[in-house]
What does this fold into?
Amino acid sequence: MVGNPNWTNEFKESFKDLRELYHFLDWPLPEVLLDVTRKYPVFVPRKLALKMKQQGPFGVLAREFLPHIHELSDHGLSDPIGDKNHFKAPQLIHRYHSRALFTPTTVCPVHCRYCFRKNELNSPEEIFQQDFLETISYLKAHPEISEIIFTGGDPLTVSNQKLEKYLRSFAEIESIKDIRFHSRYPVILPSRLDEEFCALLKWASDQFRTVSLAIHANHESEFDEESKKAISNLNGTGVQLLSQTVLLKDVNDDSTILIELFELFLDLKVRPYYLHHPDQVKGGLHFYLPLERGRIIYHSLRDRLPGWALPQYVIDIPEGHGKVSAFNPEGTSFSGQLISRTGELKKLQEPDFFN
Ligand code: SF4
It folds into this structure.
């Protein structure tokens, strides 16, 4: 089957030069933002830039994807979730007993300004080195790993042929039963979900116990008719569609906005899965909101969504202590410590820099 080559063209034609992007937007460019993009480059596909233009300079899309002077701040953590502590084989992060993250690329279809890996993706040489045979050996030596989670970067940046090669190798390891992809392509560059990719997912669903695709979106206005149609087309592939959303200050820190988003996911037969509390990433602290505020918002969601449509509200404890529940049914205030996944109490110092 011949794939649709359009997505690669769309990808290549994305804005990578801030002056060109602002010229297209027809907005005045604050010169200081050029300094920001020297540190954290910009990457915006043209269709997304058009939606951003229609929404205006104070819209949520501009906030999510345009550089901000606060990115020059030195506050925050370079590796907020402690990836480096858990790289156990090339391109493989083994943090949780039964699942491992596989990072086949550092490239994404857009540069989210809040990205938790924004510092790692900028200097990837050290941790994203490749040696697939070594990766496979590690997985064979660790039969407790039953799920491989494709992440990155965005794993769908990799060609269908290469994805198939990886999947075939994983399918040969008896202990690997489940596959999950986390991706922003379905919403940001939906032409990536071409016929060939859908066929690949269909094939993969027969090889593994489950194949899931977690679609990353934070606001209803990120979608358009093309992305809705592309996501609907995935429904025939046998893949479990999940959502993943980051709670972001001045983007979606409002229960009504989140309800609109989760209702849209449900319309598209995507099950709300994760609502992430923002990580304390260096260059992204202007998106941070206190845990207490997040708990108040989540409390309101619990009242308005049925349990099966309610995403898990989670927070990653810095230094690699893992993802834990961010909600506390006893109250919304935050004591300053969380129980890690291994049962220890860990301090969490919240930044007050931007709050
Ligand atoms: S798609 Fe994910 S990994 Fe890529 S920039 Fe956005 S948040 Fe970061």
Summary: The chain has 13 helices and twelve strands.
